[in-house]
Amino acid sequence: MSDLENSNNIEETTLETTQGAAAVPAAVEEAHVARGDWYVLQVFTSFEQKVCSAIEQKISDFNLQDRIFKVLVPEEDVIEVKNGKRYERRKMMFPGYVFVNMEKDDEAWYHLRTVNGVSKFVGAGVPEPLPDKDVLRILNQTGEVTVKPKLEIDFEVGENVKVISGPFRGYAGEIKEVLPEKGAVKVMISIFGRSTSVELDFDQIEKNV
């Protein structure tokens, strides 16, 4: 199970993970906060999708459509840069948690608690809903609103890299600065015997192993 143990922790994680996300249009706000509240289930690690599917089945079996509206395992698009190549993939934002949009209802809570793989609702003794502002940021990150994929950096200051494209192809040097907002690094390379700082995109370099 995840190390997060209470609603304060999950809210702090939500804010940290979604910091800097694009503003959410008013139309999206109205669409996603009009019905019920969003609650968080703590589940066994690697059971997130299984729990999500099981809840959807229970909604159908017990006619809970008027009390449980949506089940979500939040994911976001990330770009990894490895060995000079960019890879885009979906990444789970909160491993060990499933988000449920529902009405405050004892019967619905009971059905959710009895799903295989569910540990508990997040909350101090009773389920506590997430603030709307945090929910909207999560929905923004999951693709409810088009956002630029997050860049996942695989380079660190002090690493030795080799330039694989561009005018400095074939040179090698040490990373002196990482510029995530630009998708680039500054590398010190030796040109005509003189150490020079050059700025290179992530996909122009690879680790020199």
Secondary-structure map:
Blueprint: H1 7-17, H2 26-33, E1 37-43, H3 48-61, E2 68-72, E3 75-82, E4 85-92, E5 97-102, H4 106-113, E6 118-121, H5 132-144, E7 150-152, E8 160-163, E9 172-179, E10 184-191, E11 194-201, E12 205-207
Parallel strand pairs: 3-7
Antiparallel strand pairs: 1-5, 1-6, 2-5, 3-4, 8-9, 8-12, 9-10, 10-11
Helix pairs in contact: 2-5
Total number of β-strand segments?
12
**What's the main sheet like?**
5 strands, antiparallel
In which range does the helix fraction lie?
25-40%
CATH architecture of the largest domain: 2-Layer Sandwich
- Our Rg estimate from Cα atoms comes to 22 Å
Structure description:
Strands 11-10-9-8-12 form a five-stranded antiparallel sheet, with no helix packed on it. A four-stranded antiparallel sheet has the order 2-5-1-6, covered by helices on one side. Helix 2 crosses helix 5. Strand 8 (160-163) and strand 9 form a beta hairpin. 26% of the residues lie in helices and 34% in strands. The two termini are 36 Å apart. The chain has helices at residues 7-17, 26-33, 48-61, 106-113, 132-144, and strands at residues 37-43, 68-72, 75-82, 85-92, 97-102, 118-121, 150-152, 160-163, 172-179, 184-191, 194-201, 205-207. It is of the alpha+beta class and 209 residues long. The longest helix has 14 residues, at 48-61. It has two domains: 7-152, Alpha-Beta Plaits, CATH 3.30.70.940; 160-207, SH3 type barrels (Roll), CATH 2.30.30.30. Residues 1-34 have low confidence and may be disordered. It has five helices and twelve strands.
